Give the backbone structure.
Amino acid sequence: MTPKPPPSSYAAVFIDFENVYYFLKNHFHDPPDLNDYVLDIVRTLREQLSARGLDSLISYAYADFERMATAPQGALYLMGVSTRNVLGTDHKNAADMQLCIDALEVMYTRPDIGTFVLVAGDRDYIPVLQHLRRQARQVLVAGFRESVSGDLLQNIGADHFLDARDLLAPERLAQLEKRRTDRLRAAEESRRARTQGVPSATRPASPDGAKGPETIAVAPLATGGVPRPGAPGAARAGAPRPAEELPDFAPSKPVVGDLERRALAFMLGEFQKLEAKQQRRVPELWLGPFMRLLADELPELPDYERRDLLNQLRDAGAIRIEKREGEPHPFSVIVVNYYHPDVQALRPEPE
């Protein structure tokens, strides 16, 4: 029997620089010296790989570097990282495809490379990572937990994930977290100030001085759809409804979880976008396309957890899911209960 060869100690590192850069920019509210934070992550990653006995023979970084405020190519070169400039767009990270092509090329041309390290985490990388593992290569993923797809993390396993927070010095991470906390607090104070400035005729006051709930329309759609808030002749949001008016929804219960509320708010925003685009009332939303959009909105969750969010919204009486006959296959749609208090509270204001 032929003895199994020892595992390779050589690694190839593929850095979606653009992905990490824009996560830091958006999540931590555009901190100064953005490139330095990404470079710190790359530098510490290489050190940790070396501590594991892995020699990073190949290191590539991908981005549309011309769109960035400062150019990090020189610093990356001094660290032994080759740069790949890819033309990006406002809608898609163009580094994805080039990174996957290079990773496959290295796999087929460098059999001595035993470990592939991906610094990113979009779910688009799942096919190439699965292919690398089928070829008996070890795969590691590094990134910020909030930006790494839950589906990808579930696929590779938590033991093969490196949290980018652990790749930053504690004082550097504390600076970022403080900046985010300060900006969020300022935004919340500004929002409260605007809310308190709304005239009382628009939003009636409750006995304790707080603004009362919005009103909803009670007239159903001619097509059999659901009523919509904000129309004349509306009833108070908190008013009880006879059970026969909403026979297909579960009894209303509060939507208390942060993730459930995020999913519901995102869903209501998608309804509003469709209505603005089609210039008509949209009574239902196709489930399949919405789940793909929700994957981009909540990438940190695996697919089964995102589906469970909808189940919880359904059990709370905020939505129902119905089957429709279609060609070539049946499909499912989401119908919203506009009488539900949390739906009324989270529904976006008309633009």
User: Anything to note?
Assistant: The two ends are 72 Å apart (CA to CA). The first strand starts at residue 10 and ends at 16.
